[in-house]
Amino acid sequence: VMVLMVYLHCRGPNDEDKVSNKTRIWNNSEQRFSLQPQAIQTYKEIYRIVSGQLLHDNTAHLFLNLCALAELRTTERDMYNTWGTCTRFGAFFLSILVTTGYCTNLFTYRFSPHNIQRFTTGFSGVVFALKTYKNCYEPGLATVGIPLLTDFVCVDTDLHVPRYMAHFLQLGLVSVLVPSANLWSHIGGIAAGYIVVLIEPLIFVIW
Fold first, then answer.
1. Are 47 and 33 in contact (CB under 8 A)?
2. What are the CA-CA distances from residue 136 to residues 72, 84, 132 (Å)?
3. What is d(CA 181, CA 122) in angstroms, rounded to the nearest whole number?
4. Tens digits of per-residue pLDDT, 111-144?
5. Where do the DSSP E strands lie in the chain?
6. The pTM is what?
7. How far is CA 14 from CA 1, 19, 29, 32, 54, in A?
8. Contact at 8 Å (CB) between 96 and 157?
9. DSSP character for 35?
10. Phi/psi-derived region of residue 118, left when phi > 0, alpha when psi is between -120 and 50, beta in every other case
């Protein structure tokens, strides 16, 4: 997934070209595949639920999400060991991806109707879903922070909280530090994490 996101980002223009709007074709493509609630609800463009989460606005956005995924590598490895095969793990990971996109679309449409035409991109919703999933199974305390270079650099606070609260406080921290981030995407990710925890036994039986 990380390689795919980097590939899609490298296929597009650099950040300066995006800002100056020199590459209209890529901008139109970004809008076509981004997660936009109005297009999903009105035109039934369901593919946006997945494609919008694999695109990123700029290199910094991609970098932060890659660092967050790298920080969760132990969670992903434990998930793979639980599911046993690449096919089953892929199906489980896809369920997280789809559930996150659906929750983001639903929450935006229901609770923030003025944003239904907003083009949303980024994998951060899935990151919050994975964090929520992880915190539901791991007891103890967690440090609230934002990973930048995983084990080397991290924007951490001195606040240690129970793990079941950590993703909520991290949501607040991200909203303060990055006010332009899509709040409903992150909330959708948290909701998706809880949903996947609840339906995980059913997914395991099916696969």
1. yes
2. 14, 20, 6
3. 10
4. 988 888 888 889 999 999 998 998 888 888 877 7
5. 141-147, 154-162
6. 0.83
7. 21, 9, 15, 19, 17
8. no
9. B
10. beta
